[in-house]
Amino acid sequence: MQPIQSVKGMNDILPEEIALWRFAEEKAREIFQRFGYSEIRTPIVEKTELFTRGIGEATDIVEKEMYTFQDKKGRSLTLRPEATASIIRAYIQHQMHVKSHQKKFYLIGPMFRHERPQKGRYRQFHQINVEVFGIDEPMLDAEVMFLACLFLREIGLKEVSLEINSLGCPNCRISFREILQEYLLQYQESLCPDCNRRVYKNPLRCFDCKAPQCKEILSNAPLILDFICDSCNRHFQEVQNFLRELNVEFIINGRMVRGLDYYVKTAFEIVTEHLGAQNAVGGGGRYDGLMKDLGGPDLPGIGFALGMERIILLLKDSAKLQQDNNQMIYCVLLGDRARAEGFKLAQKLRSEGFIVDLSYEDRSAKSQMRTANKMGARMAIIIGDDELSQGVVQLRDMHRSSQWVVEIEELVPELRSILNES
Ligand code: HAM
Questions:
Q1: Of the four listed, 21, 30, 131, 312, which is most buried by Cβ atoms within 10 Å?
Q2: 192-213 pLDDT per residue, tens
Q3: Which residue range forms the structural domain that includes residue 393?
């Protein structure tokens, strides 16, 4: 019978990678807490309308990439392609603006987009997501970007750069839309079929087109940054000033428009040259009208999301962290009595808080030691019937290749002192 494979673009995360995932997730939680964020978890499935309204009908995500299906009652549901709309939905639904003082949230979890899978791009992927509601001060924009950069630096990723842009407010957008449309329509015949549609529906989206002829045309297109109103411009200048004060390096990229329609004013991406085509480690920005559009109070918002798989690819490359069972003890059990007593001893050590594994099968000493080695165990306890009758075991320091005899009574304090040192 053919074995069943996972769904294309949806990957298992195997035990040898988990250390990296946990390292990144735990670091994120620790840093977000330092900045006053609280964790929120929302369902993976939402009503489709949340995303069509939230992300925008004319975006690639909504047009082509959502996993949408009907439930048994014929309601249209969607696997979340991003978390911002869901977090806002939860904030409104639980009336958190009146019932709670909490304004800063983070969410870590899987997202789903039906894109063509390739390195760094998957159909189920994971994001570390941050959102802040109710504050429109430029100071916060800078702090949010500082937070994203600090997190990446603290997990050891230094070769990333922050690109920023201002997408203006809806008013700036209306006049710019016409200017851009007019420019693009001059080249209508050369634009790809997708951009031909985008010109009318959402011309800003053309900036993200990968078709060479469109890229060429867009390279000379007018940039929204040159057309934003005074108030948006002031906001953007202040954001830059705060970034400088926080020593955050950045590049202004007037062509960066982001793939979701909700952004206004500040938009940013964190990119790297080490991921090939999928160069964005994360992205975010301000979305001041979104909460109102989703039926909530008119509160501004800003946030970002980082792609976990891309972070893990970079961490693996930078070989910053190797899985190391630095605290693991492996019990090598030789003989029938040793197997029975060693089994009990292993449970006792586990209840004392040690990380312990053992050979459940009756195998040779050599083969058990090989397993201990492969697992990267720090210590081996070698228990034989003869030693047991004398109330002792052999203790082996796998890192230092030294071995000595220890009385069973002394085992716990001895292990504790060795493992605490390392
Ligand atoms: P986004 O730019 O669509 O923004 O996604 C953020 C990050 O998620 C990307 O930079 C990338 O690292 C990762 N990512 C996106 N799609 C994939 C994929 N198919 N496979 C692997 N990784 C992927 C958002 O999702 C916004 N909700 C961010 C945000 C939060 N803006 C404001 N608040």
A1: 131
A2: 999 999 999 989 999 989 899 9
A3: 324-416
pLDDT over threshold 90, residue 316: no
Q: How far is the CA of 49 from the centre of ligand 1 (A)?
A: 20
Those residues whose C-beta lies under 8 Å from the C-beta of residue 169, and which sit 6 or more positions away, are 228, 229, 231, 232, 264, 265, 288
User: Is 376 domain-assigned?
Assistant: yes
How much distance in Å is there from the Cα of 145 to the middle of ligand 1?
Answer: 15
Please give the tally of structural domains in the chain: 2
Residue 266: inside a domain:
yes
Q: Does 328 share its domain with 310?
A: no
Answer yes or no: is 402 within a domain.
yes
The answer to whether 312 touches 128, Cβ cutoff 8 Å, is no
**Ligand 1 atom at minimum distance from 281 CA:** 12
CATH number of the domain encompassing residue 398: 3.40.50.800
Q: How far is the CA of 94 from the centre of ligand 1 (A)?
A: 25
* CA 330 to the chain's CA centroid: 34
Best mutation site among 310, 311, 312, 314 for ligand 1 pocket (most ligand atoms within 8 Å of CB):
310
Best probe residue, ligand 1, of 125, 140, 294, 302 (max atoms within 8 Å of C-beta): 125
**Tokens read off for 170:** 């809806």
pLDDT per position as a tens digit, 329-372: 999 999 999 999 999 999 999 999 999 999 899 999 999 999 99
Alpha carbon nearest to ligand 1 atom 13, residue: 307
pTM over cut 0.85: yes
Residues 368 and 255 in one domain: no
138 C-alpha to center of ligand 1: Å? 22
Which of 264, 283, 315 is the last residue in one of the domains?
A: 315
Question: Would residue 205 count as lying in a domain?
Answer: no
pLDDT higher than 70, residue 291: yes
Decide if 291 contacts 85 (C-beta within 8 A): no
Among the candidates 315, 348, 371, a domain finishes at 315
Strands (DSSP E) found in 80-152 = 104-112, 124-133
Q: Cβ < 6 Å from ligand 1: which residues? A: 82-84, 113, 115, 120-122, 125, 127, 129, 131, 259-260, 280-285, 303-305, 307, 309-310
198-201: long-range contacts, CB 8 A cutoff, minimum separation 24: 198/58, 201/57, 201/58
